[in-house]
Structures are given as structure tokens and as C-alpha cells.
Amino acid sequence: MATAGQGTPGTPRVLRAMNDRAALDLLVSQGPLTRTQIGELTGLSKPTASQLLARLAAAGLVRTTGNVTGRPGPSAQLYEVDPAAAHVAALAVDQLGITAAVADITGHVLGEQRVDTTTVPDDAPDLTARLVARAVDGALAAAGVERGQLHRAVIGTPGALDPQTGLLRYAPHLPGWQSRALREELAEVLGIPLVIENDVNLAAVAEQHDGAAQDFDDFVLVWVDEGVGAAIVLDGRLLRGATGGAGEIGYMPLPGAPLARDGDRSAARPDAGGGFQRLVGTPSVLALAHEYGAPEVRTVAEALARDDVRAEVARRLATGLAAVVAVVDPSLVVLSGEVPQAGGEALRALVEDEFTGLALPRPEIRISDIAGNPILTGALRTALAEARNAVFDTA
Length: 395
Prior knowledge:
By secondary structure, this protein is an alpha/beta fold. It has helices at about 10-30, 35-40, 45-60, 125-145, 180-190, 200-210, 275-280, 280-290, 300-305, 305-330, 340-355, 375-390, and strands spanning about 35, 60-65, 75-80, 85-95, 95-105, 110-115, 150-155, 160, 170, 195-200, 220-225, 230-235, 235-240, 330-335, 365. The longest helix is centred in the C-terminal third of the chain and has 22 residues, at about 305-330.
């Protein structure tokens, strides 16, 4: 039989830990608070709130940060989560390099580093692990934080780790990331627990917490860039699939596109691979502009500034979205990646118009409004959640 000292539900120790976590979450979400405010928001008495804050301060989780001024009566001390209580690393991987960011437990980004991977040989031993370490160490140096102060890392990559085999699937264009022991190699070189997550899934996490999907429990984020993919969120939870491949809609067969055979979905050329990506990926958008008589177009934004290109891309996007919506029936579709960002509201409105009659469900369609790199933002959100669950557990 469990004893109270072992943390049986309902015991004083567990209740204290629950109150501690509630107070810490409030301090993270609402900023510095007084003892009275913490008591009012948690329902705790003043003596209990005082004991809680003393306990958290002794544990190195909170600190005082000045006093409330400008009101009658004695000034009250303000408390905040101690930023040094933990640090996390977030990484976003693409075909050209690795971007790393280091943040404190409050979510404040302290340093970033970009490592170019286009000039290094693919067959160097432990190359991937060393490049990740270089990116993290650069971000740590910029942040003024030691490697030993890191608690968690989350890495966003194209593709997904197969939970059965440990292999990174759906990402043939990342040859250095195909090791069966990838997670172990990275954990060893960094020396901390880490998560490897699909990049589009992380973009959806960013939208769910900070962007266009904040008020939605059922939505699909469609990423349209050099690669094409989707993240499916149902009842507030990411749908992953048996092999981690839920949402790999770049392979989805559609009229007008060749079938993607044997996992061939390279984003390097518009004539590579097949399926939905062949119709709407950035190389295909540029090729479409050239086909329409604009060989001088060099960027996706320039291509989508043309009415004819924008209309055709919208038609293709709507056709693919209709197939997804017919199966998932989300309340919202968020369009993210270079193509939607370049096309903006004009492209979104055309997609919405084209969508009429293609599918019975009619979800709202929005463009991502995340500032900066949504994959890095989602990785940071995920790393912070993992770290807080560990560090804020005072049981």
C-alpha cells in the first residue's frame, strides 16, 4: 500500500505539488504577481500562498522581482519564475542547414545559431550529430549559457521517426538523418533528453498556441513550401498514424500529377516525385510561371504576383484540400509555408472560392500569422512543455 510520503493522490504532499504547479503556470502565463494575486487566482489562503512561495523560492523556481508601487498601503513584493531554473534548445532542420535557439524556462529566447549543411560531405562519420551539436553550442554561446544548463531539446525535421523501427521516414532528401540509432546518437552528443518531431507537426503546435488556430480543437495545417505536408489536429491532439506518417499529403495522388513511387518525393526539382507536391510545391509554382511565359520570374512571390499563376495555384491547392477535408472534416485549415505566405490574402481568397462545391464540409481557411520560423516556434513550445513538466514537478 502506498504511503502519504510516496505521493498518494489526495495526500498533503500531492496537494502541495498541485498548488505549486498551478502557481508556477500562472507566473509563466501572467508574469510577475504578488502573493495576494497568487492567492486569489489559486484560491489559496494568504498563509498557504506565503508558504508556497517560500517553498518555490527555496527550490530555485521563483524569485522576487521588485515591488508594486503607485497604490495606497504598504508595497507588495512581486514574484516571477526564476528564468535560470531551466533552459531548453529548439532546432529546425531543412535541406540547407540547422537553426538552433536556446531559451530560458519562461520562453525568452536568449541566443540563436544557424549552421550551413550544404558544404559538408554526406558520408562523414557522426556528421549529423556533430552538426546538431555545433548549432546548439553556437546558440548556447550567444545566450551565455553552458551546455550543462540545458534540460531538454526538441528537433524539428522533415519526415517522421517510425516508432517501430526508429528510422526517419518520408525524408529521402535528408541522407544524413537515416541512422537507425539517430535519437540515441543525438542524445549522447547533447547529453540531455531530446525529442525528434515532424517539422509540420511543430508548425501546427505553434499555430495552436500562438497563431491562427488558437481557438480550434480540430484543424489541419497544410504546409506548402519546397516540400508539402500536413499536420492533423483532432480534439486538440496531433494525429500521428501507425508509422508517424499521418499528414504526408505530398504523396497524395491527384489529377494532373504523376504518382509518387517508392517514396520519391524530392523537393529539389519540379519534375521529381509526384502527387500533390508536384502540383503546388515551390519549384512547381516557379515552373508554372515559366510555362505561362514569364522566364524572368525567380521567386515564388514574383510568380504569385501574376493573376494567371495565382489562379492556377489556388485551383490546385483547393483540389488537394478538398481531399483532405472530405476525410478529416476539420473546422479550420491553416495554410503555411512559402507559397501561402507569398500568395497572401489574395491566394487564400481564391482558394476559398475554388473550394466551393469541391467538398461538403466547408472549413474556415486562414493564412498562418506566426512571426518568424513556425517550426522553431513549435519546437520551442514543445521543449518548454517537456522541461516544465519535469522542473515544475515538486512532488
